[in-house]
Design brief:
mainly alpha
């Protein structure tokens, strides 16, 4: 006997339970614990994710060596105010270039994390090709967020902290959603507003990691560098998991007889 013979026949003209089926198949949101674990798993399986962060670090070391050499030559030859002014201008330019390199490194790392989260191996060259078109909006949006946040800290500490939180996901808004400028800032703000408690936890954990690791004697700086891709992965995986996706178009089947 057919085991389905005891099931009731659908009423003619009644819609099929497509909605319930879609809801049953729809994946649920990951818990924060799952996101922390997934970020570690992706990083462990794709250690090449550290490569983008090595670029600004290498630039920092090279810049410090060149600056020290310049100061040494200036001390020997003299030159007064002109050399001092040149050194100050060069230092300012170096800081700007370094900040831009860190923004770019974060953008490429986010793209590598996206690839790895889809089950692929992270590849630096492919990530650069996929993300280089977004570097300009990423840099401009990050600088805009940084300026607004600094103003918040200058006026009062608390507004600066709030702005740091609501603009924390600007890089993800650019690299994942293709936003730019004020749109990227608004996207990050709305995302944090809709996921405020979990977003604050992700941010606090990332800040604690960034503060605690450098205090470890001898290896603190190295550990901080190693932790950067993990911090980027936490924010990126959380952003991808919590972003609202457009609802699936559900079709209603009607039996016309």
């Amino acid at each position: 006997m057919d085991s389905n013979s005891n099931l009731p026949e659908p009423v003619a003209g009644a819609p099929a339970p497509v909605l319930e089926e879609a809801q049953a198949k729809a994946p649920g949101k990951k818990t924060l614990g799952e996101i922390f674990s997934k970020a570690l798993e992706i990083y462990r399986e794709n250690p090449i994710m550290i490569v983008p962060s090595l670029v600004p670090i290498a630039a920092l070391i090279l810049g410090l060596v060149l600056f020290a050499g310049f100061v040494g030559v200036a001390a020997i030859l003299g030159g007064g105010g002109l050399l001092a002014f040149s050194a100050l201008g060069g230092l300012l330019l170096f800081v700007i270039i370094l900040i831009v390199l860190f923004f770019m490194a974060e953008g490429v790392t986010i793209e590598m994390i996206r690839e790895a989260s889809a089950g692929n191996k992270a590849d630096f060259n492919l990530a650069w090709e996929a993300s280089k078109g977004k570097m300009e909006p990423l840099i401009l949006s990050s600088i805009l967020a940084g300026i607004i946040t600094v103003v918040g800290y200058i006026l009062l500490i608390i507004p600066g902290i709030i702005l740091s939180v609501v603009f924390y996901f600007v890089a993800q808004a650019v690299m994942i959603d293709g936003k730019s400028g004020m749109e990227a800032l608004k996207t990050s703000y709305n995302f944090v507003k809709e996921n405020v408690s979990d977003a604050v936890i992700i941010i606090i954990v990332s800040v604690v990691i960034s503060i605690v690791l450098p205090t470890i004697p001898l290896i603190g700086a190295l550990l901080s560098l190693i932790a950067l891709p993990y911090i980027y992965a936490l924010a990126t995986l959380f952003y991808m998991d919590r972003k609202k996706m457009p609802p699936a178009k559900l079709e209603t089947k009607v039996d016309v007889s």
